[in-house]
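Bumping my old thread because nobody answered last time. Still need a sequence for this structure:
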């Protein structure tokens, strides 16, 4: 008798729990979700002048290729770096030709990071452009559209309370549990991807 009286209450509690879990899953910022069609992805906020970002880039590319998952890169130029904003704008210019060329420029900057200073960034960009047969205009961003894209990425990072670069996440489209995890120790990246894919 007592169980039959509690049954409606139990059903109500289960329904409320399901609604709360769904609401929590929907509160995950879209930046911490994989692109459509992917169940897992890597998301990184990076500064092209950041030495740790340069060290992380090959590992992220390797993980993306190994697991066949997208690597979503966001610009997060830090104010203390004197050429990272301009490098990000130039990378965005190369993105307008193709994302492959834009990402190749980012890798090129990371590879030559120790040699680059504000006065020679343009020379490095020109050399890269010539090697990839892309014309580099004298003024890369006359209307400020590319700068706005970089700032939008930086603001996106600020909206999830980013404070450092690189900030790396393994993200999923899960609706239960935690759909993303920050990679604090890069030596654990592959294990974190394995764990996210297994859930």
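Sorry it took so long. Here it is:
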């Amino acid at each position: 008798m007592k169980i039959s009286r509690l049954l409606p209450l139990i059903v109500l509690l289960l329904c409320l729990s399901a609604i709360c879990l769904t609401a929590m899953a929907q509160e995950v910022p879209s930046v911490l979700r994989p692109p459509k069609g992917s169940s897992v992805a890597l998301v990184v906020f990076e500064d092209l002048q950041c030495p740790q970002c340069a060290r992380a880039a090959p590992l992220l590319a390797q993980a993306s290729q190994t697991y066949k998952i997208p690597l979503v890169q966001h610009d997060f130029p830090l104010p203390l770096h004197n050429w990272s904003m301009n490098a990000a704008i130039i990378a965005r210019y190369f993105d307008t030709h193709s994302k492959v060329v834009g990402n190749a420029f980012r890798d090129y900057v990371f590879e030559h990071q120790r040699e680059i200073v504000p006065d020679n960034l343009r020379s490095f960009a020109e050399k890269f452009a010539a090697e990839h047969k892309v014309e580099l205009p004298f003024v890369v961003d006359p209307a400020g559209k590319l700068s706005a894209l970089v700032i939008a990425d930086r603001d996106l990072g600020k909206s999830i309370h980013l404070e450092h670069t690189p900030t790396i996440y393994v993200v999923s489209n899960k609706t239960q549990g935690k759909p993303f995890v920050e990679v604090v120790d890069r030596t654990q990246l592959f294990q974190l991807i394995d764990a996210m894919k297994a859930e």
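The mean pLDDT is 90. Let me know if any region looks off to you.
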